[in-house]
Every structure is written in C-alpha cells, then in structure tokens.
Amino acid sequence: MYEMEALLSRMERMRKRLGRHANERHQTMQARIRRRSAAIVGAAVAVISAGAATIIAAQGANAAAGCEVEYTIVKDWGSGFQADVAITADEPIDGWTLEWDFSGAVSGISAWNVSEQSLNGSRFTASDAGWNGSVASGETREVFGFTANGTAGDITGATVNGVPCGEGDGEQTTEPEPTEPAQDGTPVEEHGKLHVCGAAMCDEQNAPVQLQGVSSMWLHWQSQPYAQNLQALEWMRDNWNLEVLRVAMGVEPEGSYLDDPDRWKSEVETAINNAAAAGTYVIVDFHAHEAHTHQAEAVAFFSDLAERYGHLPNVIWEPYNEPLQVSWSDTVKPYHEAVVAAIREHDPDNIVVLGTPSWSQEVDVAAGDPVAGTNLMYTLHFYSCTHTGWLRDNADTAMDAGLALFVTEWGASAADGGVDGQVCLDEAQLWTDWMAANGISWTAWKLDVGPDSTNLLSEGAPVTGGWDNHLQGHAPFVIEQMD
C-alpha cells in the first residue's frame, strides 16, 4: 500500500516543484562603486560605499605601492551580509595578509579561501591560502569572501602585509551589475511557519509538507565552511531542490563548542541568517552524544538563540543529535524538558525535534512516555546498509502512537558513514519511499569532501556551489530523491 501512496506523493510534489521552478530566480542587485587613487604612505584612510570600496595600499616587503583592495558587499539581509575581496597589484605580490577595522558591530565572520582569519573587537585579519597568495603586476584577483553577522558599515585602518593604506582623492564611478526579477517561490514563501499536525508536519495553510535537504558535517571538522556559505545554499536550493539545511554544530570533541562557544555559536548564526536570506528552513543541531551531561550549556545556548531568532518562521531546533544507549525516561526526557522549556520561554511555536536513545533509533520507546508540549517531533536516524525493515517497524509503532518523526540524518551506507565507500541503494530506496509515503521530512548526511560514501562532494569542490562535476558516494541518489 505504501508504495502506491509514495508514488502519488512524489507525483504531487513534482507538480508543485515544476510550478515553483518556472518562476525566475534572482540575486540581489550588486552596485560596485570603485575609488582609485595613487598610494601615499602615511595615515590610513579607507572609504566604503553601500556596494563596494577600493582601498589604496602602500605595501611592504612582499607588496608594492599602488595596490588596490576592492571590498564588495554582495548581499545584505539586515542582520548579516556577504562580501567578496579582490586585490589589484601594480607590482607583483607573493603572499598577503589583509587587515581592517569595521566601523559597525560585526560578529560571526566565516571566510573561505584563507588560511587564517580572526576578528578581535572590530579588527579583522585574513591571510592567503597559499594557492591564492600571488597577484601578478596589473592583475585583479578575487582572493576570498566571507559572510558575517551585523551591518557592513565602513572599514578603516586597512593594511596590507602590515603597512598602512595611503590616502588620496580619486574619481568615483558606478558599475551596476545586471539585475533579475524578484525571487518567488522559495520553500519558506511556499510553506511559511511549520507546525505539527497529528503525527505529521503541516505548513501555514495546514497542508501536509515533507521537507528534503542535507546535513552539514560537524562544523569544526568541515574541510571548508560549506554550511556557512550563502551562495552554496542558494545553489542547492535552485539546483538540488533543497528545502532545509541541518547545521550540525559539534559540541563535545576537541575544538568544538565546549572549547570555543562564541565562535561556534557565531557560525550557527551565520547559517541561520543565510537561510533567512535564501528562504530555506534551517535545523540548529546540538550535535552531541552526551548532551545530558552538558544540560546547563545547552539551556544557555538554545535560550539565547531562541530569544534572538525564534521569531523567524524557518528555524527548527534539534537539542540532542544522538543519545547513546541511555534511559529515555530517566536521562534523555528530563534533558529535553529542560531545553524545551528554555526555548519556549522565547519561542512559543517553532518546531523542536527531540533525539532518542541508541543513536536516535528508539522512537518507539519515546512514544510510550512522550515529552509534554506542542510542535514537538522525534528524531529517527538510519543508514541503509545497517538499518532495515525492523527499524521502520519501530518507527511505524511510534507513529501509530501519535509521534511525529523527522529523519534529521540518514545515509545509503553502513552506520559508520560509509568508511568502506560502499552504498546500499536498494534498501535506501525502500527507506525514501517509506518516508515519502508517511510525509516524513529528512536531511541526508553530509555536505563535505572526503572518501566516505556519505560525503556528498569530491576533492576540489568549491565552497560556493556549482558541484555538478563534484558529486561522489551516495550524492546522486540523495539529489534524485529531492524531487
């Protein structure tokens, strides 16, 4: 029976998507305003317009006078922005470190194509990644980009390789970029704020909805900041039909949240702001196996984010990725009750997805003693080479008892993420058909580069999307399911 329901469900989703993607997509208009002048070593002056600024730098040992640094605001969505940085060299440059001060309040910077980056107060520093350190005489080279929370404002006190920028006057010209019609039909525009309806998820019009997307790698283990890049998110939305991105913020390993909470919370905020700009849903995942031992930290984390972002219609909270083999009623449930209470103090209605014991598989156990509250769903994880029909049977039991499920992580591999490179596509198809028949939303593991069969991308995949020639492992299957 569910095979026929799955077919009908997929046909209906395809009909809606064809209508949606018939609408034209757009990018925010970019205005590039360039200021050129001769370099004079002395007091540092930088000028920035609403679109872009050029900083004239006198350089040191590896930099020559007359270098221009163009800082372009690509997108600005109010609570954050994306910028690109280019260098024009009068004389060759072999390695660069750029620094400047932001005049406005900026936080949560995530840059790509750099080897080092830091933000100390208002002072931002970034160094080349090696392959992009050389700029030939007369060449203009876009060297890196970043997203940040806050307002773009002005930049001042710019230096290249430690030498202050010069000052001077110059002619200003405006070079507008091509514009396109306003974007229509993003997932959030189509569905609005989501809520739990019985054992399913419904949209703002009370119609059942199944979201499909991908999960990030543990943020601190990403090979590049794919999950924090707005262009990549928009590309997946437009080319993969992605509707939701899960941001897996690692909590316990060395270098993750417990070691550096300010940094990793800022990275999550970047992803939230990107999703708001792209019109996609975002899952904020406290990616831990022993989160109940860090309950105070989790309460503080979710309380703060819920207060500042709980008004958005596209945020979904996931307080506990995969509890280990611990008691649901005595250990996991009390933790969820504490974190849900902290979220609900500021965000009364966005969906919260609750992890379950044994790596989020014991949804049938949770069904016997559910957490009280509204708009609560329960996490189910599977890997098709390891988990087969017996786990679907457990999930059916949970749904029959009234639980709403969300598969926030799955792979067409073994439960180790496919370190052997193998995939089990026949069983994976049974799983995706089952999810379609039951309207269960999902995010597939994981958006990163590497040999594991659950890594979606191959070596050399750019951080900004355009990955048609960089798919590997179970990626083609996952993308095909996002119909």
TrEMBL record:
Residues 60-168 form the CBM2 domain. It is an enzyme of class 3 (hydrolase). It catalyses: Endohydrolysis of (1->4)-beta-D-glucosidic linkages in cellulose, lichenin and cereal beta-D-glucans. Residues 164-189 are annotated as: Disordered. The keyword Hydrolase applies. Residues 168-178 have a biased composition (Acidic residues). Its EC number is 3.2.1.4. GO terms for molecular function: cellulase activity; polysaccharide binding. Keywords: Carbohydrate metabolism, Cellulose degradation, Glycosidase, Hydrolase, Polysaccharide degradation. Belongs to the glycosyl hydrolase 5 (cellulase A) family. This is Endoglucanase.
